[in-house]
Write a structure and sequence with these properties.
alpha/beta; 2 domains; single chain; elongated; Rossmann fold; three-stranded mixed sheet
């Protein structure tokens, strides 16, 4: 199913007032009722209601500030009973949709595939998590991708230099492809020619990534490649950016890729090998509860160290707040945003 997420919270009738009788002969009304339920119940990507950067709050209309409403116990039970009754009805197609919505409400992986539309018309499919397959996490859109995508939309000139030169852009750990596809849209709006390479490691993620790229017109500018960060050796004194420039990138993007400190050296080695001479690596790291600062400290320690060969360093760092629309800021996630380049 496709959920169109709206720019601002909208007032909606509660289920007890809005839902028609299932005994109605009109399937059209029942279809409309299911669309209404999707709008109020399908969850947004956590931590993406809005972002606060440089003191300015921006509502992420396509990712989190949707039409969902809080339901009290009575309304939630009313809705569950209505869907359950539809599930047992003679309308097979509608019953299937009711089953999916019940799964979503219960938080079950049985909810299956969700397709959302994000800012600039980017359409992304998320595939249900497989609790037995860690790699399936990349088939879900993470909050950091939503936040970095919005940052590119709002501050495109800080990510991409203008001009007629064709830019070569790389995304590490592309996941569902939201960042790469948004980058393609932003660059197109800037009339800047570009070739974007979206990379990931796991087969299941690459398969879903390919689907999302084919789903979007902007995908024509996006190539997909398998990439294993662990294959890049640590930099040595006899290898510098001036050597083997072919294949290096003008811009590299990464979100939610340093979720474990051991990954940071792999990312460093990959960036050292693939970042162009005057290029910038844009990295967004979530500061998760219980691990506040761990990933950020690892990034700063590794990227500011001086070793063999030419070194990379953190050129810029700032805090970005995502979410915060939940009760008492319960949806809030803090991110560290880095711009990293050559010393």
């Amino acid at each position: 199913m496709t959920i169109i997420l709206h720019p601002n919270p909208v007032e909606a009738l509660l289920p007890s007032a809005a839902l028609p009788s299932i005994d109605l002969d009109s399937q059209k009304q029942l279809h409309a009722a299911l669309e209404y339920i999707r709008a109020i119940c399908v969850p947004h990507v956590p931590g993406t209601s809005c972002i606060v950067i440089r003191g300015k709050k921006t509502w992420l209309g396509s990712t989190g500030n949707d039409a969902s409403i809080d339901l009290d116990t009575f309304e939630r039970l009313y809705l569950v009973r209505w869907l359950t009754k539809l599930l047992r009805s003679e309308f097979e197609e509608l019953a299937e949709e009711a089953s999916k919505l019940l799964a979503i409400m219960s938080g079950s992986s049985g909810a299956g595939i969700l397709t959302r539309q994000y800012a600039m018309g980017v359409t992304i499919r998320d595939v249900a998590l497989d609790n037995t397959d860690f790699s399936s996490m990349g088939c879900q859109t993470w909050g950091g991708s939503c936040v970095l995508a919005q940052m590119m939309i709002d501050h495109g000139d800080e990510f991409f230099p203008g001009g007629s030169k064709k830019l070569h852009v790389l995304e590490l750990g592309a996941g569902t492809g939201l960042v790469s596809l948004t980058a393609a849209k932003v660059l197109s709006s800037m009339r800047s020619p570009a070739e974007i390479t979206a990379t990931d490691y796991h087969d299941t993620v690459l398969e879903n990534l390919q689907y999302n790229v084919s789903l979007n017109a902007a995908g024509s500018a996006v190539n997909i490649q398998y990439l294993d960060w662990s294959t890049f050796s640590p930099p040595s004194a006899d290898v510098s950016p001036e050597m083997d420039l072919e294949g290096r990138y003008d811009v590299i993007l990464g979100t939610d890729i340093c979720y474990s400190p051991p990954h940071v050296p792999w990312v460093y080695n990959t960036i050292h090998r693939l970042l162009g001479l005057n290029a910038i690596f844009h990295l967004l790291v979530p500061l998760r509860r219980g691990l506040e600062g761990d990933s950020a400290r690892s990034v700063e320690d590794v990227f500011n160290m001086r070793g063999a060969g030419r070194a990379l360093e953190v050129k810029h760092k700032e805090s970005v707040i995502g979410g915060g629309a939940g009760e008492n800021g319960s949806d809030e996630v803090e991110y560290a945003y880095y711009r990293i380049g050559w010393v």
